[in-house]
Amino acid sequence: MKNVLLIIGLLFFAHMGYSHAGGHAQTRQEPRVWKSVENKVLDEGHFLLAKDQSVYLERKTGEVVSYPLKNLSWVDQKYVLRRIERIAKLNEMEVESVKIPAQKAESSSGYYLVVLYALMGALIIWLLFGNELVKKLKKKKKLLGFAVVCVATVFVVACSDEADEVTSVDDLVSAVSSTDELALAFAPYTNVSTRFDDEYFYVESDGIPDHEMMVGITAWIAQFPVPHPYTGDNAWSIPLNTKYAENPVSIEGELQRGALGIAANGIPIFNPINASGLVSNDIGELDAFGGHSGRGDDYHYHTAPIHLESTSGILPIAYAFDGYPVYGSKEPDGSAMETLDDTFHGHEWSDGSFHYHGTSDYPYMVASLRGEVTLEGTSPQTQITPQAIGQAFRGDPHGINSDDLVITALTENATGNGYTLEYTSQGKQGSVEYSWDANDLYTFIFNDIDGTTTTETFQR
Questions:
Q1: Where do the H-state alpha helices sit in 258-325?
Q2: Torsions phi, psi for 9 (to 5 deg)
Q3: pLDDT digits (tens, 9 = 90+) for 62-100
Q4: How far apart are CA 54 and CA 48, in angstroms?
Q5: Cα angle 396, 402, 408; round to 5
Q6: pLDDT tens, 229-267?
Q7: Could you give the angle at which helices 2-19 and 140-174 cross, rounded to 10 degrees?
Q8: pTM for the whole thing?
Q9: Cβ-based burial of 192 (10 A; exposed 0-12, middle 13-18, buried ≥19)
């Protein structure tokens, strides 16, 4: 009788070990709790899909709701990226490949079920008919101990098999491609397109932002914003493989030529120190957005594009050309910006990653590059390579009287192929009307403050 009770107890224990709640039953997970940028509970529901920068959720009631991705917390945005990555990987598989894991999991569970009952059968035979052997060997306690170990082994093996399956799925989900995070940062801006290869993430644009340009500038070298073909082989390049630099490059000793980063709206960002060694923002060279046109008639920033926070939310507002992101006044999770390392104007985040922050004070975005870069040129007139090039097409600029000058307006023409720039100098009005045609023929009409008008044309 004792043996029978023991058998029943062991069978019950082993069965519970195989069929306990927590992974062996095919039950749906509880809905995820989604939080907002402010880290407040937004909703509860299962992730369905992400489309057009919105996330679609299914509540317990079956109701489907959507939220803008940028309104979700940093943690939830990361989760969505992982789900997108997982779905993309599954979609890349062939149908046959998709079927194999399911079949393997099913046969695996059946295998351990067979092992379980085989071991239990052996135990039953031993307990019912092995008494004489036990007495002879005088090892009943060891046998019972062996029985318990066998059942416990089945319990552990059955659970570990299921745990391994879950772990493999988690590993797949957590394998987030950096290109997805990069693409997400540029996605809100329709004038920007992106692509990537094994080495670089490429950003393409025409170099013209969707905000006002040039207004308020008092130190002007008679250059104008025109579109530039930052596309194809001339796209901006962000390295995908980042590495901390042993000898970080400082903006005060290098990088006074070319861009050191790219804003999320596709506008290049130059050193706040200009080619003459002066801080552009301190001498009236920049407009309200921290930009102006350089000698190639290329519009670019010399400060951090923190105005993009209104569109980017808690996503990066830029990327430096060492591969590290630039955030605005908030951390990736939406919390207030933490103390910055003055050496770099950035810091490491809680997940071990590094990022910069844009601020309204010098050095604005980068003090020294945290990551490795390749430079070309002679100090301090060096620039990062590879580097997109603005295609200059004019020679020496038209002479404009700059005494007490201030640019008052830049207005796009009705056909979208040119602008009128207005300014005052010595209390008098002046303007420049410029446009281009389909053959890249540029026409500039200079209406100077002395009343003279000069027309110049340039073939690009």
A1: 309-312
A2: -65, -45
A3: 888 999 888 887 777 877 876 776 676 556 554 334 333
A4: 11
A5: 105
A6: 999 999 999 999 999 999 999 999 999 999 999 999 999
A7: 10
A8: 0.66
A9: buried
